[in-house]
Specification:
Elements (H helix, E strand, L loop, with lengths): L1 H13 L1 H29 L11 E6 L5 E2 L2 H8 L3 E16 L2 E10 L2 H6 L3 E4 L10 E5 H8 L8 E4 L3 E8 L12 E4 L11 H7 L1 E8 L5 H12 L10 E5 H4 L15 H31 L2 H9 L4 H38 L7 H4 L1 H26 L4 H5 L11 H30 L10 E5 L3 H4 L1 H9 L4 E7 L8 E9 L2 E12 L3 H5 L3 E4 L10 E5 H7 L8 E2 L2 E7 L15 E4 L5 E6 L3 H15 L6 E4 H7 L2 H35 L1 H9 L4 H35 L10 H27 L3 H6 L2
Parallel strand pairs: 4-9, 6-8, 15-20, 17-19
Antiparallel strand pairs: 1-10, 1-11, 2-10, 3-4, 3-7, 3-10, 5-8, 6-9, 7-8, 12-21, 12-22, 13-21, 14-15, 16-19, 17-20, 18-19
Helix pairs in contact: 1-11, 2-9, 2-11, 2-13, 2-22, 3-7, 9-13, 9-15, 9-22, 11-13, 15-22, 15-24, 15-25, 22-25, 24-25
Length: 765
């Protein structure tokens, strides 16, 4: 082995540039693979650290996860095999922490939650069982932030709507858990309980739920028993309950209302595909460069064979060299991964912890297998390319086998991958541009969303009038939430042409100034007002068309009198089609929408000053609607950046392979080039001859990549209800970009070969 290493480093010193390119390309490729393996493995390991997670399930009702609170008692008493059941609600509430108010991520649940998820206590009350019904438990990190090293048990946590006695401190949820919170309190605190009928309470107090079943229990039997329980209520008579394994919850993106963290599944599949493609490109590229370098060593190999070296020795030499390059690149790749992981973490929106390369078995075992196989495969192919030839053919450089050289095809495959990724990145950016410039049906420019807290809610009218006293404030309108947030969603039974029909609705509370501020068009009827005893509402055009009403006059929705119809607005992201919208008149907003003139810094300072005078204990929470709406598409922007970065990596790897190909081509044809020059061939003709094959393979790659990219982007765009066109020029631009970079890459080697002294070329051996 030591002898092979010496031979390799001797060979390395003779071809420094090509060797550095080989190791550099390998290192870049391996760095990408290491980072992607870490990210994908960490995503796949989400929630796996939870004790007994195999027996924890989430209850689902079709695609819904909300179920009535009475299930806690009913399931506990009627369903054998269920060990524990808990329900929960996650939301942010304001609490007084010292002299400031801060948003705290609160988990409202029942006592069984602590048994299901087995949280260890750091501090706890003296009594044997810690009851959270009328108390609060805080996490260790929350405790350290606000109480330091002090044991906070017995302290009172003061909130805007509740004062809670701290009875315990638990360890934080695992960092790789889909369930994250700061404090835990009783389920009664998570819902404003109504004093209606038993039927109302059973069907309107809805929560998400988890069950822990016995190890030998059958989930299908338990789900059927829970289904029978909920079918006894009118509103759930046709529903079927299923048990979803908790390990599947993180990857289920169909239930955004469950308040849990969820994976970006499309990104996960995308990165997995890229990792596999980069791995193949790495192997192809190394084989290409090594065979090119090996061509320069043909005479050396021939002499060794003549001196008695066996074919096996030649085979092992190249095999060991492949493994050695892999080891060197592996070390460099680890260092490079540590350096660039923060950058990639920022792009992906999730930390890539490179320490898991050494601490997480799935990571280092996967990386070790990948590197071992890559080293062996990368060494075998060059070995097979040379060991079978006779010494005479090697010394005379006569290696023609009658078969076509596969290196060009390898380059074509690499550029196919690169062009596909480049085209995809361009199309994703094109869709993002389409989204950002889409007319949403309301005027959002220079409109600020100001979230009200504390005293600012009860004194919103005063704050509104104060803001309007400034001539730079064009308009102010109150609302419950923002134009793309909703107070309620669901179905409601209404009268349609003498009959009854269940229709969907999305409610959004506004005041009388809201329509004017956002430039909503009332196509029939009038704006809301507060005259009369009944609340008023507007419905959107889509809703009206689907109701089959002859007229909206005298009609009611959810107890509100319909007074007008507004032109459709896109109140959801563009993944969703237009839906039903109810704008109902409210007083007492929790958001002020403020339209300003162009003097942004001055107006912002004025708004902050006015707010602080009314509510000095909380920070000013505001955002421009333009920025906020654009932030709704962060997932797509991350995908665009990710695809663009890895497309660049793929293009670099492909170009490094090109260097090997053009090196091999010029070495094999160097005498031919010399003869052509002696016979009067111009430099431009030599360049055209050498670059013709490169153009051919890139064109082939482009023709193959176009339908692949078209299909991939067509599938990606299916998730959008409103989307851009798949324009032909995007594919052409990607192809021309790849071709231009390819020609620039090989031009130096081609020019060097074309301008070489023909006497030297004819003497070359």
């Amino acid at each position: 082995m030591l002898r092979f290493i010496k031979l390799y480093f001797r060979s390395l010193s003779k071809r420094k540039v090509l060797s550095l390119i080989t190791i550099g390309g390998f290192t870049i490729s391996m760095t990408v693979i290491i980072l992607l393996v870490i990210f994908i493995t960490e995503e796949r390991n989400t929630d796996k650290s939870i004790t007994d997670v195999e027996n924890i399930y989430r209850l689902k009702r079709g695609k819904e996860t909300l179920l009535p609170i009475s299930l806690i008692d009913d399931v506990s008493s009627q369903v054998p095999g269920v060990k524990n059941i808990c329900m929960y609600s996650l939301r942010e509430n304001l609490f007084n922490m010292g002299s400031v108010k801060t948003d705290v991520k609160c988990l409202a649940t029942n006592d069984a939650f602590l048994d299901i998820f087995s949280f260890d206590f750091v501090y706890r009350a003296a009594h044997p069982t810690v009851n959270i019904k009328d108390n609060v438990i805080i996490t260790k990190s929350f405790c350290e932030k606000w109480f330091g090293d002090k044991n906070p048990v017995g302290e009172i946590l003061k909130g805007d709507y509740m004062d809670l006695n701290i009875v315990g401190v638990i360890n934080d949820p695992p960092g790789n858990s889909s369930l994250q919170f700061d404090i835990i309190y009783g389920l009664d605190r998570g819902w404003a309980f109504h004093t209606g009928s038993k039927e109302y309470n059973e069907t309107h107090k809805l929560f998400n739920s988890f069950v822990q079943i016995n190890e030998n229990a059958d989930p299908l039997i338990i789900s059927s028993q829970i289904t029978r329980i909920i079918n006894k209520w009118h509103y759930f008579s046709d529903d079927k309950v299923s048990l979803q394994p908790f390990l599947d919850v993180y990857f289920d993106t169909s239930t955004p209302g469950d308040y849990l963290l969820h994976a970006n599944v499309s990104m996960l599949y995308l990165l997995s595909s890229i990792a596999i493609l980069i791995l193949f490109m790495t192997i192809f590229n190394y084989v290409n460069l090594t065979v090119s370098a090996g061509y320069q060593r043909i005479k050396e190999i021939g002499i060794r064979k003549t001196a008695g070296a066996a074919n096996l020795n030649i085979f092992l030499q190249f095999l060991n060299e492949g493994i050695l390059v892999t080891l060197v690149s592996f070390g460099l790749a680890i260092l490079l991964s540590i350096l660039i992981s923060p950058v990639l973490s920022g792009i992906l929106g999730k930390e890539i912890n490179t320490s898991s390369l050494f601490s997480v078995p799935q990571v280092w075992i996967t990386v070790l297998i990948v590197f071992s196989l890559t080293g062996i495969i990368s060494g075998i192919f060059p070995a097979l390319a040379f060991y079978r030839f006779s010494p005479q053919r090697l010394i005379t450089r006569n290696m023609q086998t009658g078969k076509s050289n596969p290196m060009g095809a390898i380059i074509a495959v690499q550029f196919l991958i690169a062009i596909t990724l480049i085209s995809s990145a361009f199309f994703i950016q094109k869709q993002i541009g389409f989204i950002k410039h889409k007319d949403l049906g309301f005027q959002k420019d220079l409109v600020i969303r100001l979230n009200l807290q504390g005293e600012a809610i009860s004194r919103s009218d005063v704050l509104k009038q104060t803001l309007l006293s400034n001539p730079n404030i064009v308009a102010v309108a109150g609302s419950r939430g923002s134009i793309m947030d909703f107070e309620g969603t669901g179905t409601h039974e209404i009268e349609v042409n003498g009959g009854k029909k269940n229709v969907g609705w999305r409610m959004f509370g506004i005041d009388e100034d809201f329509v004017g501020l956002f430039g909503l068009q009332i196509i029939e009827g009038k704006n809301i007002d507060y005259s009369g005893r009944e609340p008023k509402c507007l419905i959107n055009e889509w809703y009206y068309k689907n109701l089959d009403w002859d007229s909206f006059e005298g009609k009611k929705i959810a107890g509100c009198e319909v007074v007008g119809i507004v032109k459709d607005i896109f109140f959801d992201n563009l993944h969703q089609e237009l839906g039903f919208l109810v704008l109902w008149g409210v007083q007492g907003p929790d958001v002020l929408n403020i339209r300003i003139n162009g003097n942004v810094p001055e107006n912002i300072e004025f708004i902050k000053k006015c707010y602080s005078e009314i509510e000095p204990s909380t920070s000013v929470d505001f955002a421009f609607y333009n920025d906020w709406i654009q932030s709704m598409y962060q997932k797509e922007e991350k995908e665009a950046r990710t695809v663009g970065i890895f497309a660049s990596f793929a293009l670099i790897i492909a170009c490094l392979g090109l260097i090997g190909l053009i090196e091999l081509t010029t070495n094999k044809r160097i005498k031919e080039i010399g003869i052509r020059k002696v016979n009067g061939a111009r430099v431009s003709e030599i360049l055209a001859m050498l670059n013709k094959s490169i153009v051919k393979w890139v064109v082939i790659a482009f023709l193959a990549a176009t339908p692949i990219a078209f299909y991939a982007m067509h599938r990606w765009l299916e998730s959008f209800a409103y989307k851009t066109e798949l324009s032909w020029w995007v594919f052409s631009l990607a192809g021309l970009m790849a071709l231009g970079i390819a020609l620039l890459t090989v031009s130096f080697q081609s020019w060097k070969a074309a301008t070489r002294n023909p006497v030297e070329s004819l003497r070359y051996e």
